[in-house]
């Protein structure tokens, strides 16, 4: 279950993707949260992937049919207009003026057609304007063009944010807001965060999640065990290209894995700590890119206070001397949490996140 912070951050990102104008403070808070939350990082990357989708292109036959239909409508309209003008010249002139306005607005201009192949859209526009189509014909023909354009523009058009006009506002683009300042300019014009390739925080380590447990990946290449991988995880392995990666389980107790890469494999070791000499392993929400710190599993809500309340309560220290916390009314034997910024030498030293450590035993 997502925390209230996750829900709020994802609402901000979604609003940005819809082109809404957001305050600089909302952008700052969303940026800070998503830079540390694996779930929200994945959410942002998903929206970025949607935004980067290229729309399908029209076939030559579809283009020809659309232009032919417009040409036929415009030709018929021209004849009707000439006949009407013979009976009432003033009405004909008025109709012609209205036609020019609607044809130029509905068919030729605006963002509706800016991403569509300019050749055939321009031809359609010239046909309508050249024939002096009636107002209702211009509107009908524009529907034909828009119907064809809808299959081309697709998701890109729907997610393209309009240019906002607001004082002291910042437009957040959902496909990237890591490591970028969010400061409204002094002139009051809206500041826009320019999109670029999404990257995780550089200090988060090389972590993967397998069966809910966190493993730290060695930097050196290794020779994987013989045979095909038996499991799969999703990770970028530092390449910023998230993909399915084959996993070899190397040890009988599942504490050592080998993760397949393009040119070999990486060894990954389970992240652990001990309490009363019993082994506890780090669990986390999914992590699909290097540089992201582990977070609490989804069944836990992030505490609102450094003392763990209202989710956790203090329960002593582990064998390293780090303070541990347990859900209210529970015991450490069922697992425990560690607060952000544990001391130097701790497996999670440097992390700003709460983490959860569960009892770990070898599989039967």
Order of helices and strands: HEHHHHHHEEEEEEEEEEEEEE
- Rounded average pLDDT: 71
What would you report as the Rg, rounded to the nearest angstrom? 29 Å
Distance between the termini: 30 Å
- Inertia-based shape: elongated
| Helix proportion range | 25-40%
Query: How many alpha or pi helices?
Result: 7
Q: Got a strand count?
A: 15
Unreliable parts:
92-118, 131-202
User: Major sheet, described briefly?
Assistant: 6 strands, antiparallel
Name the structural class: alpha+beta
Strand content: 15-25%
Strand order of the largest sheet: 4-5-9-8-7-6
Question: How do you describe this structure in short?
Answer:
By secondary structure, this protein is α+β, with helices and mostly antiparallel strands. 35% of the residues lie in helices and 21% in strands. Helix 4 (60-87) runs antiparallel to helix 5.
Task: Record the SSE blueprint.
Layout: H1 4-17, E1 22-23, H2 24-34, H3 38-51, H4 60-87, H5 89-108, H6 118-131, H7 135-159, E2 169-171, E3 191-192, E4 207-210, E5 213-222, E6 231-235, E7 243-249, E8 256-261, E9 264-270, E10 272-275, E11 278-283, E12 312-317, E13 323-327, E14 336-338, E15 355-359
Parallel strand pairs: 2-3
Antiparallel strand pairs: 1-2, 4-5, 5-9, 6-7, 7-8, 8-9, 10-11, 11-15, 12-13, 13-14, 14-15
Helix pairs in contact: 1-2, 1-3, 4-5, 4-6, 4-7, 5-6, 5-7
């Amino acid at each position: 279950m997502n925390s209230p912070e996750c829900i709020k951050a994802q609402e901000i990102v979604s609003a940005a993707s819809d082109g809404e104008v957001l305050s600089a403070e909302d952008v700052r808070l969303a940026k800070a949260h998503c830079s540390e939350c694996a779930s929200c990082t994945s959410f942002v990357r998903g929206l970025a992937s949607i935004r980067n989708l290229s729309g399908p292109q029209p076939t030559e036959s579809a283009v020809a049919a659309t232009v032919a239909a417009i040409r036929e409508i415009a030709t018929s309209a021209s004849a009707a207009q000439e006949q009407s003008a013979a009976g009432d010249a003033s009405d004909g002139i008025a109709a012609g003026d209205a036609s020019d306005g609607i044809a130029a607005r509905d068919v030729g201009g605006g963002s509706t057609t800016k991403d569509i192949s300019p050749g055939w859209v321009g031809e359609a526009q010239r046909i309508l304007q050249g024939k002096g189509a009636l107002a209702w014909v211009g509107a009908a023909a524009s529907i034909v063009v828009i119907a064809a354009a809808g299959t081309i523009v697709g998701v890109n058009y729907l997610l393209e944010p309009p240019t906002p006009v607001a004082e002291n506002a910042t437009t957040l683009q959902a496909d990237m807001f890591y490591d970028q300042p969010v400061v409204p300019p002094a002139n009051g014009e809206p500041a826009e965060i320019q999109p670029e390739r999404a990257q995780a925080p550089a200090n988060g380590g090389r972590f993967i999640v397998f069966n809910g447990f966190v493993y730290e990946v060695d930097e050196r290449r290794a020779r994987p065990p013989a045979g095909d991988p038996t499991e799969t995880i999703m990770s970028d392995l530092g390449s910023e290209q998230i993909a399915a990666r084959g996993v070899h389980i190397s040890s009988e107790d599942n504490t050592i894995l080998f993760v397949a890469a393009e040119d070999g494999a990486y060894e990954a070791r389970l992240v652990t700590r001990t309490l009363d000499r019993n082994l506890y392993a780090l669990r986390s929400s999914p992590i699909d890119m290097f540089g992201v710190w582990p977070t609490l599993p989804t069944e836990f809500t992030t505490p609102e206070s450094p003392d763990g309340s209202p989710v956790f309560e203090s329960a002593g220290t582990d064998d390293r001397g780090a303070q541990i916390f347990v859900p209210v009314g529970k015991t450490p034997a069922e697992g425990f949490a560690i607060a952000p910024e544990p001391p130097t030498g701790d497996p999670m030293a440097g992390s700003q996140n709460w983490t959860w450590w569960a009892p770990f035993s070898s599989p039967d």
